[in-house]
Specification:
306 residues; alpha/beta; 8-stranded mixed beta sheet; 9 helices; 40% helix
Length: 306
């Protein structure tokens, strides 16, 4: 092989390798940055009146000065308060009005809180759970300031990103009494790697990508927040109850995420692995009474622990 051919091969190899590394490094910024920058306006929002109940609009302010849209649904002589939180891009928390109506019949008041940068709440930056725990805290503080709720247990109940926020908040704020989560991801870097692999990328590429995703989120949200993700925070829940629900064939957030969280969960944390691919677990999320198995599982958890 002459020197010219060798030089060409070396140069080609160099450009292929450096180009691949560059793509790996920039991919988290391109994908995650486009997903979390901006304000989410939902295609569907719902009203309490659509479900035959009365909802009172309130405004919450977080410790970092975000204004959150929220709604209360009370019931006579409540025995607990459920705080509901929606997803990263679906659903709006207003999709939980059917839950609020149903659980009011079983003695639970509700507070529906729209996460920052979503719907009528302020903000243009989705924080992937690294800051949304402050939204949970704002709801918790609002409830604790209400005399009629003063001594009642408060349970954070979230779907997708809302589930992430609920788990993180439980790990950070011992005054939160319990958690119910639906399809929470174990960490953003885990979800990124999973989705890259399940989209057809080679396993090695997906594996190598995770550290670069971690570097991106550390740079974006700060080193002090590096441990604010569900797989880490679930271990800080202590002896408080939690119910983590996930569909076994969820194509949006793989079941692997629940398995990772449960690896660090205290023994009293319950999981419900449901057959099927429904991302929100319930077969009729807007009208949960049409899914008796789902309702029975949640009520069993609430009755046993609260």
């Amino acid at each position: 092989m002459n020197r010219g051919v060798k030089t060409f091969i070396l140069l080609a190899t160099f450009f292929v390798v450096t180009g691949s590394v560059a793509i790996i490094m920039v991919l988290p910024t391109l994908v995650t940055g486009s997903l979390i920058s901006g304000h989410v306006q939902f295609d569907e929002v719902f009203e309490a009146a659509d479900y035959g109940i009365e909802g009172r609009r309130v405004s919450l302010t977080t410790e970092d000065d975000h204004r959150l849209a929220a709604w209360e649904a009370n019931t006579d002589n409540p025995k607990g308060v459920l705080m509901f939180f929606g997803g990263l891009n679906y659903p709006s928390v207003t999709a939980f009005w059917g839950h609020a109506r149903l659980f009011a019949e079983h003695g639970y008041a509700s507070l529906l809180v729209e996460l920052r940068a979503h719907g009528e709440s302020s903000g243009d930056q989705i924080s992937l759970g690294y800051a949304e725990h402050l939204d949970v805290l704002a709801g918790l503080n609002h409830i604790r300031d209400r005399e009629e709720y003063k001594d009642l247990p408060v349970i954070a109940y979230g779907a997708n990103l809302g589930g992430v926020a609920a788990i993180n908040a439980a790990g950070l704020y011992p005054e939160l009494d319990g958690v119910i989560s639906i399809a929470a991801f174990s960490s953003w870097s885990d979800l990124f790697r999973d989705n890259l692999y399940f989209s057809g990328a080679p396993f090695l590429l997906a594996l190598v990508e995770k550290p670069f995703v971690n570097l991106y989120v550390l740079n974006k949200f700060g080193y002090k927040n590096k441990n604010i993700y569900p797989q880490y925070q679930i271990a800080n829940i202590g002896d408080r109850p939690a119910l983590l629900m996930h569909s076994e064939d969820d194509e949006n957030v793989s079941f692997l995420n629940l398995e990772r969280i449960m690896q660090r969960a205290p023994e009293q944390v319950e999981m419900w692995a449901r057959e099927g691919s429904e991302h929100l677990v319930s077969t009729d999320f807007l009208y949960p009474e049409n899914d008796p198995e789902y309702v029975e599982r949640v009520l069993e958890f609430l009755t046993t622990n609260f």
